[in-house]
Structure formats: structure tokens, C-alpha cells
């Protein structure tokens, strides 16, 4: 009983923090199902008197929301695949192979991640123009990789450094090639770290706004972040009901991934803290 009383303040504080963090999400969901007439009334009521899904219907039927949604899916998946392929191979190289300048490369990668991504916008934009890739999702995939790859590479390098080399050595002694040992031994062991890093990369690409605002400016190529802002927010008016409905639908994929990959996320970032 004494232990319970001792933990009571910590439990209250924990629940207060949780409620404080979750409340904006609850408000967002409830606002998205309120009729327009209940949005700006006083006193403010948390729960809607009449539940409606008209905002979702308008969003899906009268706006290019689904086009933006598809662009974000393609963009986030493509960025995640590119970054994870390069980061997995690069992290393995930095963790296992001995060659001159290996530590210098690792430090340079970390310093690249610490650099503010905003300083690369103009050089990257000019590069995309020279390559004829302006206003394309390809330009955003390349741009997102520039600031997602350094962190992913550093994290996977640390994770793979924590995998015992004896496991790989045993596979090589049994006749496996270096590639075979990597595929059959290293990848299964590194799976939690790979999944957690991939989730981080996906979230980064899904939520990114500044590069998308600069690199693309047509409805055919806009992702959700800039598309929704351009569609529902102006200097004179904000479509709050549609904005809340769009925010809810934008959050669904991330909540889905977190729900099913939570155990990998926890174990991956915990193991990724191992010093290489």
C-alpha cells in the first residue's frame, strides 16, 4: 500500500501529461463531426449536439483531397524505400568493413543531419530545375532523402554495430557468401531497427511542408501538407470544419502504422542507442 501511495503523484502527473497531449486530437475529431452552426458558439461545448459527416463527404467529393492523399502515399513510400535501401547497405558498411576514413564518413554523416534542412532548399531547387525535375514528385523524393538519409544511416550503423560479429562469422565459416550472410543473418537481426527507422522516414516525408511548398506548385503534384493548406486556408477565410476533417484523415495512416509497429519502434530505437 505504501508503494501505491508513493507512486500516486507520479501516476497523476503521467495521466495529466497524457491528457494534455491527447486533448488536441480529441478536439480535432469532435470538431470534424460538428455541424457548421456549432463551431463558433458560446459557451463552447466539447461534444457535438448533432453528429454529422457532411464535412468528410464534402472533402472527398468536392475537393482534390484524394489526389493529394495519393501523392503523399507515393511520395512517402518512395522516399522510405530509397532511404532504407541506401541506409541499410551504408550502415552495414560503416559497422563491419575496415577502411580508411570510415569514422570520418560517419562523423560527416552526423554533421550533415545536424545541418538545418532549410539551407539546402535553394541549391536543391536549382539542381532540380537543371535536371528538368521541377514540379515532380521525384524532386521531392530526392529532396527528402537529403535530410532523412543521414539520420537513418547513423541509426542503422549504430544498430548493426550492436549485432555480434560471431553470428556473421559462423555463417561465413559454414560457406555463406558475404551477401548471403548479410541477407540471412544481419537483416533478420536488424529488422526491428530497420522497421523503426523506416517508420521515422515515412513520418518525416508524410508531414514535411517547406520543401513541398517550394518544389511543387500544381495540384497534380501537391502532397497533403501543401495541398490542404492551399485548398482550405486563405488570407480571408479558413474552412475549419473541412480542415479538421482533413487533419483526421491525414492522421489515420500514421496511427495505423504506430498501432501495428509499436513494438518494433520501441525495440529499434532502444537498440539503436548502442555505441558503434
DSSP, total strands: 0
Report mean pLDDT, rounded to a whole number.
83
CATH top-level class of the largest domain = Mainly Alpha
Determine the CATH superfamily of the largest domain: MetI-like
Q: Give a short account of the largest sheet.
A: none
How would you spell out the order of helices and strands?
HHHHHHHHHHH
User: How many domains?
Assistant: 2
Outline the low-pLDDT stretches. 268-276
Number of helical regions: 11
Structural class: mainly alpha
Task: Work out the strand percent.
Answer: under 5%
Radius of gyration: 23 Å
Judging by the overall fold, what is the CATH architecture of the largest domain?
Answer: Orthogonal Bundle
Q: What is the terminal-to-terminal distance?
A: 44 Å
Tell the overall outline: globular
Helix content: over 70%
- What is the CATH T-level topology of the largest domain? MetI-like fold
What are the key terms here?
single chain; 276 residues; mainly alpha; MetI-like fold; 2 domains; 11 helices; 75% helix; globular; disordered C terminus; cell membrane; transmembrane
Summarize the structure.
This protein has 276 residues and is mainly alpha-helical. 75% of the residues lie in helices and 0% in strands.
Describe the structure.
The chain is mainly α. It has two domains: 52 residues, no CATH class; 218 residues, MetI-like fold (Orthogonal Bundle). The chain has eleven helices and no strands. α7 packs across α8 and α8 runs antiparallel to α11. The longest helix is centred in the N-terminal third of the chain and has 32 residues. The radius of gyration is 23 Å and the shape is globular. The two termini are 44 Å apart. The relative contact order is 0.14. The C terminus is likely disordered.
Amino acid at each position: 500500500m505504501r508503494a501505491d501511495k508513493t507512486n500516486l503523484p507520479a501516476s497523476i502527473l503521467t495521466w495529466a501529461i497524457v491528457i494534455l497531449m491527447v486533448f488536441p486530437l480529441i478536439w480535432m475529431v469532435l470538431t470534424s463531426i460538428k455541424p457548421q452552426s456549432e463551431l463558433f458558439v458560446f459557451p463552447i461545448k466539447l461534444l457535438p449536439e448533432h453528429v454529422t459527416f457532411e464535412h468528410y463527404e464534402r472533402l472527398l467529393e468536392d475537393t482534390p483531397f484524394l489526389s493529394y492523399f495519393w501523392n503523399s502515399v507515393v511520395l512517402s513510400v518512395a522516399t522510405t524505400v530509397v532511404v532504407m535501401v541506401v541506409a541499410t547497405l551504408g550502415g552495414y558498411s560503416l559497422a563491419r568493413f575496415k577502411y580508411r576514413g570510415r569514422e570520418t564518413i560517419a562523423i560527416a554523416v552526423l554533421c550533415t543531419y545536424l545541418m538545418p534542412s532549410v539551407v539546402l532548399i535553394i541549391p536543391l531547387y536549382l539542381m532540380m530545375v537543371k535536371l528538368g525535375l521541377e514540379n515532380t514528385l521525384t524532386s521531392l523524393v530526392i529532396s527528402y532523402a537529403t535530410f532523412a538519409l543521414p539520420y537513418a544511416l547513423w541509426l542503422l550503423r549504430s544498430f548493426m554495430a550492436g549485432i555480434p560479429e560471431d553470428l556473421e562469422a559462423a555463417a561465413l565459416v559454414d560457406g555463406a557468401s558475404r551477401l548471403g550472410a548479410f541477407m540471412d543473418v544481419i537483416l533478420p537481426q536488424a529488422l526491428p531497427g530497420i522497421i523503426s527507422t523506416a517508420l521515422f522516414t515515412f513520418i518525416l516525408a508524410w508531414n514535411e511542408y517547406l520543401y513541398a511548398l517550394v518544389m511543387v506548385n500544381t495540384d497534380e503534384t501537391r502532397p497533403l501538407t501543401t495541398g490542404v493548406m492551399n485548398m482550405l486556408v486563405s488570407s480571408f477565410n479558413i474552412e475549419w470544419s473541412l480542415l479538421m476533417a482533413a487533419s483526421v484523415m491525414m492522421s489515420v495512416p500514421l496511427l495505423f502504422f504506430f498501432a501495428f509497429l509499436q513494438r518494433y519502434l520501441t525495440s529499434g530505437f532502444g537498440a539503436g542507442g548502442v555505441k558503434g
